[in-house]
Structure formats: C-alpha cells, structure tokens
Amino acid sequence: MAKKKQKLNPLITYEAPKSPVSEKFRGIRTNISFSRVDNNINSLIVTAEKPDAGKSTITSNIAITYAQSGLRTLIIDGDMRKPTQHYIFNETNTKGLSSLIVENGEPDDFIKPTHIENLFLLTSGPIPPNPSELIGSTRFKEVFNKLKTQFDMIIIDTPPTLSVTDSQLFSKLAHNVVLVIDAENNNREEVKRGKELIEQSGAKILGVILNKATLEKNTSNYYYYYGDE
C-alpha cells in the first residue's frame, strides 16, 4: 500500500514558524524584496496557470511572513469565481471585494483583521455574474489605489491565468506577479502560455514557486509547499 503524504496545516508559517517549510516562505519574501531593487514592491499577484496548483495556500503564507516582519499586510481574495481565503482563515464571506466594488462604501467596512498580528483580509464577497467587469472598473482602480496608501503590502490571490482574464486585469494594477506551478502535474506549453498572458498585461513575473515537491527524507517529514525553481 502506498504511503500517504502528510497533510500540512495551511497556515504553517503561523502554526510552525521554525519549520523548514516556513523558512522557505521567508526566503520567498526575501527574494521578492530583492527582485526589484529600483522599485519598492508594495503589491503582489499570486496566480497559477491552471487550477489546483496551491496558489491560495501560497498566498496566505507569503502574506503571513510579511506581517511577521512588522509590515501592515492585506490579503485580497481576487478569485470571485472560486474563493478560498475565507475558508483558510475561517471567516464569513457575506461581504467582501465584490460588494466593496459595487457599493459606495469605505474599504474599512469590508476588511477584516485576522488572528495574526498585522495581517488583514478582504474576502471575495458574494460571487458576482461579471467578475472581470468589476475588476476592470474605474471604481476598483480607485479602491486599489486607496488601499495602497493604507497598507505596506497587498497580496492578491487571483484565478488561474488560462481560465479567465481576471489575473491579467489585476496584474495591470499590481505590476508584480509570482507564478505557482504544480511540480507533480504541469504542462510546459500551458506554463509558457500562462507566462505570456501575464507579460502581455505589462506586469513583471518576479519568480516561480514550484509547489508540491517532496522534501528530502534526511531533512524533515514535511512535504514542500515550495521548492526551488
């Protein structure tokens, strides 16, 4: 019988900050910071070329490392088609990004503090019939620019690039993208196409996170969320 892989807590950087996996996430944060030395990075897109690559877990853990470093950090669940962040943080999703864009309210009325110091969450909100139109609206651009004045770092979890145009629309505003690739199940041509779509938006891919790669047995029992490219 095949041995099952150990299932990790999705917020491992919070629950086990001294683990090898958490150290990898801090390494990702450092690499992001050094990737554009001529331009301070205060917003970031985390996406994948296809579903089930683990981008939402990656998003939350990268965000936690920024919060742990003392930066006021906001996670935006920009996946208004298949939202996940409210499950990860055990929050309700009765209002969030979609309702913030549609309603003429203030971001503070929709953003929730998490149980982690310096970390805040804007859930996706109710699933709308027209996510791409909301993301591409002037209203969202105004909201996003205001949020950038309120937070040191904004990290957006978006739908996969090959599925819909949402990630490209977000990338036009945030400019900086990290691409998550499933180490066990990926297609070279799909990855290349996902990369091209991001670059067509004018955004820069800061790096690639190879997810679901196994850790060497002599190092730990954990399985990587992240492995070197």
TrEMBL record:
SUPFAM superfamilies for this protein: P-loop containing nucleoside triphosphate hydrolases (SSF52540)
Domain AAA: 47-186
Classification via Pfam families: AAA_31
E.C. code: 2.7.10.2
Family of the protein in this entry: Belongs to the CpsD/CapB family.
Reaction(s) catalysed (UniProt annotation): L-tyrosyl-[protein] + ATP = O-phospho-L-tyrosyl-[protein] + ADP + H(+)
Keyword Nucleotide-binding tagged: yes
PANTHER family: FERRIC ENTEROBACTIN TRANSPORT PROTEIN FEPE, TYROSINE-PROTEIN KINASE
NCBIfam families per UniProt: eps_fam
CDD domains xref list: BY-kinase (cd05387)
Keywords: ATP-binding, Kinase, Nucleotide-binding, Transferase, Tyrosine-protein kinase
Molecular function terms, GO-annotated: ATP binding; identical protein binding; non-membrane spanning protein tyrosine kinase activity
Name of the protein described by the UniProt record: non-specific protein-tyrosine kinase
GO cellular component, one term: plasma membrane
